[in-house]
Amino acid sequence: MSYTFLQNYWWFLIALLGGLLVALMFVQGANLHLGNRTLSDLQKRMILNSTGRKWELTFTTLVTFGGAFFASFPLFYSTSFGGAYWVWVLLLITFVFQAVSYEFQNKKENLIGVKGFRIALMVNGVLAPFLVGTAVGTFFTGSDFTVNKLAIADPSAPVISTWGNGWHGLDALGQYPAVLLGAALIFLTGILGDLYILNNIDDDEIHAQMRRSVKLSIGPFLLFFLCWTAILLCSKGYAVDAQGVVFLEPFKYLHNFLQMPAVLVLFLVGVVLVLWGIYQGAFTKSRSGIWPAGIGTVLVVMAVFFIAGYNGTAYYPSYTDLQSSLTIRNSSSSQFTLQVMFWVSLLIPFVLAYIVYAWRQMDKKKITPDEISDTPHKY
Amino acid sequence: MDVILWSRIQFAMTAAYHWLFVPLTLGLAFVMAIMETLYVVRKDEFWKKTAQFWMKLFAINFAVGIATGLILEFEFGTNWSNYSWFVGDLFGAPLAIEGILAFFMEATFFAVMFFGWGKVSQRFHLASTWLTGIGATISAYWILVANGWMQNPVGTTFNPDTVRSEMASAQAFWEVATNPVAVSKFFHAVTSGWVTGGIFVVGVSAWYLLKNRHSEFAKKSILIGAIVGLVGSGAVMLSGDASGVHAAEFQPMKLAAAEGLQDGGNGAAFTIVPGIKIPKMLSILATHDPDGFVPGINDILNGYTDDEGNVVPSVADKMTMGRTALDALAIYRSAEDPGVKAEALRILNENVQYMGYGHLEKPEDVVPPVGVVFWSFRLMIGLGMLIALVLLLSLIAVWKDKLGTWKWLLVAAIVCIPLAYVTEQVGWIVAEVGRQPWTIQGLLPVNVAISSLSAGAVKTTFFLFLAIFTLFLAIEIRIMVGAIKKGPETIKE
Asked: A261 touching B, CB under 8 A?
């Protein structure tokens, strides 16, 4: 296996994990209904118990996404996490509250009350997709950092990756295309959450609420997503030549789509699937919209990662110093590590298989009001 | 305080909180699994209810462990940016494998274990309970492979072109995965979790006996808890012995600090507490030879020759060679003349094994805080032995049916619950503070491993995380105590 193949392969896996992470954020989207005043407390508990059985998959995917990025592209891990400090810290804090909110919220000794933990889950529901979207948005807008590997030989200032401003990642909020993607993800994960609840809970009133919610989210989602896509296709991109020199190329991401037609097809198929799922949820009696919408989300996110990193593109560009930009060539692990990790990655289908098997067993029975009163362990 | 110290404090605090929750997860998982196995094999509803009670406590504890673990993983990037690049090639892989192999297993089967009663078959449910514990254990293995590598960085070579340590060959990964330090650490840490889980079950059950509640449940739980805890204690002692030998071989300064050994030599004595020594014991523990040579702090600072005739240079000499390596690296990276580059590479390769020392300011920097490591080591051993004794006596009391009369033992078992947590914490203090000033032993000191952040930023996140984790801990304790007070009420005795 060549080094180039392995680097491309690992970028593919990062894209896949990124896609799965965004799709699994239906958990975050569904939890937004914990603040829905038209739902009864029992209905909210049904939602809570429904997402409460899946949140760990989202959480684990986030952890694995981080671990895989660390293992395959450590320079990204060190540059982005150490540089865009506040964005990642904020994101982690919202997930940390999510992790305990399920188990703690309905216990009377929980100190901050049911409401406190429900607010935490809703904050996670908004901030997690927004921050992930904004962070991915900077793959195209660039960030303010420099990388100087020789710094490590200088005991007085040894850090190789330095952020250019004191905002440490919050500066991304000033880049409206990145913010647009973040906003689009809030509504997309909200829609996915609605579609998931529709599928997983047996309750007519909840179903009607979810279909209404999907309808309300279509407009803002399409607005933000289409605006971001239009800006992306028209903007200059961070291209890399054969010598590894980074330069700005007009319409770079449009070129990437056109020069990688398979990625364009992937993107379009993904968009159609998302729209099909939305249509099913909003305008038909079907309860299966989560499947096309979820799969479509994975495909779209993968396509976005592909145009960010493949075809001679710097996936984590620096607008301060173009040559500090990260590419899948200059930021990856060594060939030996990627090779070992390649063999490990062959276990992923096995992992997916047992997850699917376990959840098919578990989801045979949908969540009902009786389930909430009868289950020995519930949230 | 500067950013290095704040980064260290933040990471130490996160790790300490994380390890408040993990040992109980590791230990209780197997207690529950054994109980559910008894339910399936004997078809006795009593064991199902008993397992379900301990599962309830497991769930309360599990969530906070996950939360603190998430922060810990990402702090490698957020606060130890240089570290992430310098050793990410080796260190990232175990973390990724942990995610792929262990976390998904834990997450999937944890959900089946809690919500699968009546939804999946009895056997599938039992398998899920075991797999939750096995997943947690596999997770521990890979993170301890990563940690073991920080103590003994095997299978790596410095690449001046990428300016980082890289995997020396594809086969080197096997060396990393089976690093003797990692293996002994794995057994030591995981089985210490069995001890904590065991004493937790014994202590909580003892409280019921003192209150004359759920006596059948309590006695049978003590039996299982004491067996798991005692097996754990035995394994902790064996793996602890291996850890001592490994420390002597790979981290002699840590061992010297743990012993407060200023001047070493052959036939070194073991200090129980200052003034009370066992002759030759330290040599036996460190080398398995009563006359084996154990270097002291001054020997390491000034250089010494070991039993096999190997000359270990003084720290000052290592620093000189390290600085030569750093200068050569700078020339290699900036020179354009091939001859100059080749000469710089030659000098670099000659001195590269001490490059990390080039970042130190003075030789004494390699000495960790001796008092902290010395007393933590003694607390760990003393409390560990006390807990093992209480577990053994609990088992004897069950066997001789004396649990009702040996009230003092019941009180001791309850007291041992917090002591088990103290033991876990001081154990990690020995391992991690004893490694200072290195993040990676001999390769990368903490002052070079950090991110480019202000002390104020890290201080802010430190207090933020401290507040959050403390809140979670307080809630967990309250809920746990509430659940224990409520007790396994559904069991008909």
From this structure: no
Q: What average pLDDT does the segment A33-45 reach?
A: 92
Taking an 8 Å cut-off on Cβ atoms, the answer to whether B77 and A81 are in contact is yes
The C-alpha atoms of residue B341 and residue A198 are separated, in whole angstroms, by 66
Domain membership of residue A379 (yes or no) is no
A267 token code pair: 């993107």
> How far does the CA of residue B395 sit from the closest CA of chain A (Å)?
31
The total number of structural domains that make up chain A:
1
Helix, strand or coil, per DSSP, at residue B262: coil
Domain with A126 in it: 3-148+156-374
Mutation site for A-interface testing, chosen from B103, B120, B333 by largest number of A Cβ within 10 Å: B103
- What is the rounded average pLDDT for all residues in chain A? 94
Picking from A95, A153, A377, the nearest residue to B330 by CB comes out as A153
How far is Cα B79 from Cα A78, in angstroms, rounded to an integer? Answer: 9
pLDDT tens for each residue of A42-92 = 999 999 999 998 999 999 999 999 989 999 999 999 999 999 999 999 999
The Cα of B479 is separated from the nearest Cα of chain A by a number of Å equal to: 5
- Helices (DSSP H) in B152-214: which residue ranges? 172-177, 180-210
- Candidates B62, B85, B142: best to mutate against A (most CBs of A within 10 A) is B85
CB contact A66 to B (< 8 Å): yes
pLDDT < 50: residue spans in chain B: 491-493
- Both structure tokens of B174: 């096997």
Q: What is the 3-state secondary structure (H, E, C) of B421-484?
A: HHHHHHHHHHHHHCCCCEEECCCEEHHHHCCCCCHHHHHHHHHHHHHHHHHHHHHHHHHHHHHH
Residues 6+ apart with CB under 8 A from B103: A60, A63, A64, B135, B139
The 3-class SS string of chain A reads: CCHHHHHHHHHHHHHHHHHHHHHHCHHHHHHHHHHCCCCCHHHHHHHHHHHCCCHHHHHHHHHHHHHHHHHHCHHHHHHHHHHCHHHHHHHHHHHHHHHHHHHHCCCCCCCCHHHHHHHHHHHHHHHHHHHHHHHHHHHHHCECEEECHHHHHCCCCCCCEEECCCCCCHHHHHCHHHHHHHHHHHHHHHHHHHHHHHHHECCHHHHHHHHHHHHHHHHHHHHHHHHHHHHHHHCCEEEECCCCCEEEECCHHHHHHHHCHHHHHHHHHHHHHHHHHHHHHHHCCCCCCHHHHHHHHHHHHHHHHHHHHCCCECCECECCCHHHCECCCCCCCCHHHHHHHHHHHCCHHHHHHHHHHHHHHHCCCCECHHHHHHCCCCC
Interchain proximity B452–A163, CB inside 8 Å: yes
